[in-house]
Amino acid sequence: MSTARTSQSSSLSSSPAGGGRIKAEILIVLGLSLGQAGVYAIVELIDKLTQAPLSVQTTRLNPVLDDRQYFDLTYQLLGIFFALVPVVLVLFLLTEPGKSAFRRIGFTFRKPKVDFGLGVALAAVIGIGTLGVYAAGRALGITTAIIPTALDTYWWTLPVLVLSALRHAVLEEVIVVGYLFERLRELGWSVAAIVVTSALLRGSYHLYQGIGPFIGNVIMGLIFGYAYTRAKRVMPLVVAHALLDVAGFVGFALFGSAIGIGN
User: Fold this and answer.
1) What is the pTM for the complete model shown?
2) Which range marks the domain in which residue 36 is found?
3) What's the CA gap between 178 and 163, in Å, rounded?
4) Which end of the chain has fewer beta carbons closer than 10 Å to its terminal beta carbon, N or C?
């Protein structure tokens, strides 16, 4: 029975009506998540460009959301929680009878050696490249000064920064890679077209930081997309992304002001 239903689902997706439904689903998912972020990022970039040169502007990540400590904590946790709802949605949409969405995109810990080995390697490569792209962007005046965290120092600051890093890693990799690759493949797109589209989407929602971060994240997207086509697992990308963001957020919170990062 489950085989018949799965076959029926595949047949539906290959039909014109099924293809239209998948396209609508993609637009809805992106409109609720990172596609929406991309549109806001473009508008914010235009806003910044019409105010002053990007080189003299600052972008603050993880900002304070309330002057009072425990309301700030509450807003931070609510933001992380609700940002992950689209992840739950796409996992629900990718689940088919007898076919787990988690296993379908490799969002499991079934292969820890691959996940952590490849994840650490990707984090090292991307981390070094990110620093280079950021430095070049600042030198060329196409990147704002980026402050990885503007949170006040409380007992919960570091745990919240770690949760924020995990939020970004799971949200971006599950949707921009795992989900999007599956759905575009069902629409008959080539692997190259999927990888490029995913990379451009990744770059788009970083445009509020400047042109440099857009370029850097497109490159990151191309590397991550290629890695996904080889490993067939999204978990190494989540691990790599989480390591990068934890290092950036927590590292800045601990040492940023002491060494003058962001000036």
Assistant:
1) 0.90
2) 2-259
3) 21
4) N
- Convert 177-204 to b/e letters by CB count within 10 Å (16 or more is b): bbbbbbbbebbebeeeebbbbbbebbbb
Helix or strand (DSSP H, E) at 223: helix 211-231
| pLDDT tens for each residue of 57-98 | 999 999 999 999 999 999 999 999 999 999 999 999 999 998
For residue 201, give every residue at least 6 positions away whose Cβ sits within 8 Å of its Cβ, in sequence order, or none: 30, 34, 35, 38, 176, 180, 221
CA angle 40, 46, 47 (to 5 degrees): 85
Residues 198/203/205/211 CA torsion (nearest 10 deg): -160
Distance CA 24, CA 157 (A): 39
Q: Is 248 left (phi over 0), alpha (psi -120 to 50) or beta?
A: alpha
Distance CA 164, CA 205 (A): 16
Give CA–CA dist 185/70, Å, rounded.
45
